[in-house]
Amino acid sequence: MRHPLSLAPALLCFTFACARSAPPSAAPPPVTGSTPTYLNEAAPFEARARDLVARLTVEEKVRQMMHDAPAIERLGIPAYNWCSEALHGVARAGLATVFPQAIGLAATWDEALLLQVASAISDEARAKHHAALARGSRQVYQGLTLWSPNINLFRDPRWGRGQETYGEDPLLTGKLAVQFVRGLQGDDPRYLKTVATLKHFAVHSGPEPLRHEFDARVDLRDLYQTYLPQFELGVRAGGAASVMCAYNRVNGEAACAHDQLLNGILRRDWGFQGYVVSDCGAIADFHSKHHVTDSAAQSAALAVRRGTDLECGTIYENLLDSLKQGLISEAELDRSLERLFLARLRLGMFDDPSHVPYAQIPASVVDSPEHRALAQRAAQESLVLLKNAGALPLRRDLTTIAVLGPNADQWLMQLGNYNGVPAHAVTPLEGIRKAVSPHTRVVYAQGSELADGVPVFTPVPSSALRTAAGTPGLEAAFFASSELAGQPLYSEVSPTIDVAWGDGAPRADLAGDNFGVRWTGRLVPHSSGPHRLGVHSTCNTSVRLDGKLVLETKYRLHDELADPRLKKSELLQLKAGQAYEVEITARETYGDARVQLVWAEPRPQLKAEALAAAAGADAVVMVMGLSSNLEGEQLDLDIEGFRGGDRTRLELPAPQQELIREVVALGKPVVLVVMTGSAVALGWEQSHVPAILAAWYPGQAAGDALAAVLFGAASPAGRLPVTFYRSASDLPPFDDYHLTTQTYRFFPGRALYPFGYGLSYTRFHYDQLELPARLEPGQELVVRARVSNVGERASDEVAQVYVARLEHEPGSPLRALAAFQRLHLDAGASTSVELRIPPESFATVSDQGKREFHPGLYQISVGGGQPLPAVSASSDFALGRIELGNFQPL
Asked: Which terminus of the chain faces fewer neighbouring Cβ atoms within 10 Å, N or C?
């Protein structure tokens, strides 16, 4: 889902999606007379839902099937906005603990950690929800129905939203999803803590620019072998209470009206009892993009009849017309409504809060010390050491360390997308400065832009701001209304614009969700040439320069940093020392309030500054990579290597490659840290850079986690959840959903870094493999092996089991992950691991989508990665063979 408030003009066709609720009315009066069934806490939830739905008028029913459901005062039903996000922390609702982006969580290969992280997220979601209710606020992103996790398969590294997933393997994705769902939904036998939503069901992974009209063509083998297993695990083993359907078509049918997927597989075959929600604007695509219907009334009726119960959007308001035209029956509406109210009842929304255990979670859990520590642990576990030719760990007492790169000191970048706002994000530069000896000098230089035409934004300093009186800073006028009407309540001088008021206000006599600020003064550039202005803001914010509107954002932390209407040819041409009248307004209407004024200045000496810093250093740490402004969800971007949120090539952007090569040529010990949400082709870097770390988008604790590994306080043990190819030429066309050579399971070549790969500061040895000689079809296999830490450092290890049929069947995986376990071993210690391989690991999927067992020999490998030649390794593996009995369909 893309929220429209990010202002991407390509999405104007559904700017209604996830709109903010109207200001809450007074508390609805209680229902009088005898207690109705739907308010009787002793009655079964299903009976309560049926009773409530039966009391609604048809007009009320229709309004309750859209994401921004209004209050029904006569029944005591409060307003509720179903739209909330929690991909790696409570998102877009202000202050929250921000964990590593989903792809980073996947790199931990740690099921227990995923459960802990999701439990912390749901704690914060509950606490923030009840705090909002206490303020009388029921707006978007303040609810308990969380539209996470994204468990689409990351089939191709060019997909911009792959960062939101758990990687390219169905088993790893499914097992991590199960734990995440359990953590979000809680373990109370009666009430749900929050609702987890598996998305985007089910065949969805780009291209981003075409997602509203694209038809993903797959055969039954690929559907059941690759695109469905993780969703099945999330539903059957995880018990997810909700599923979100995708924008695109699948084999000609719109995903949100796909009878086979929604009614056949999801509900009939898997027994799913929850509700299905559309992605935002997906129902409008039926008639406007896919042309599978001719009108909004037809689209609404088709979606509901095929199983989409809730719409993120407003097309369902046409259901009244659908009823009049005989396109749908009221009974079909009731079926969806009962599912929706069942979820709200299970969340305890109609019960005495004292009876709902999760309603008692205190606000103090948000950004608590325990959650901060967990965020650092998760970030640390996610780091994957790709190469180490003796450069790591670094000494803390080096005389000088140079920290270079466009991602070295960018806090917003490290949060990825679908993120909250941490109280403080530790950048790599800050983390390194905190970790080194007091006598070590740390020198920083940005070195390059992110990409050609994509600058790095930095805070506008006080030295570039002047009041009308000529003093440093800007004059700030504070208003008691978000409309900034009348006279300001008070004024003061702000040295810079870098404020974070949380869910409060600048002063006690201002309302936390209804105030405004206007900063005025002059902007005095340091240099001449093209400039860009931007803001990091959770408020409705505008920037005017000499009376001209140059920037406008709304409602969320705006990480695009420039009005999409402001094209490159319209960059602000400013002169050094000249004063420009500047006015910045921020209107706070809900949630947390944060505003930071940033800019991108012309800096022709970036590379020279970095080379000078590196030349004088004992070691160099280069923090390079991408950002969610380059790879992401349907972005308005078309530059070399990037188009519409997707990538067209896998290498780092050219300015970064040039800087890396020139720094390496200096002959200094160089550590390359790559922060991305996807795989990067690092062929030259692998051959020439002494040490390389994949750090993903590590969340708020990026700097502390990175420093712990760089200086040896922790041994890296993350493993790749995706294949790092040598170039995009290794891949088939991006829009080809048929699995041929995509992902490690089908790739016949030699990857630069294979799926499951990762190094350590120690070495592990596997032996004493135990497995039976023969296995019957449908039987679980128990594999045992001894793992020994034969190095000199304590470390985590990820034991991985892969299964490969020796007589390979075309169309089936070459090998597949069958089990994994993250464990910790002290130096010199050994332990026995027991890994259980499910029966389906030995099944093949036929052209008809049926799982079948075929007799023959299967290779079983147990080790720290795939049984493949690798560029280097921290562990070996043990191999065995097992014979499967006679053919038997599953």
From this structure: C
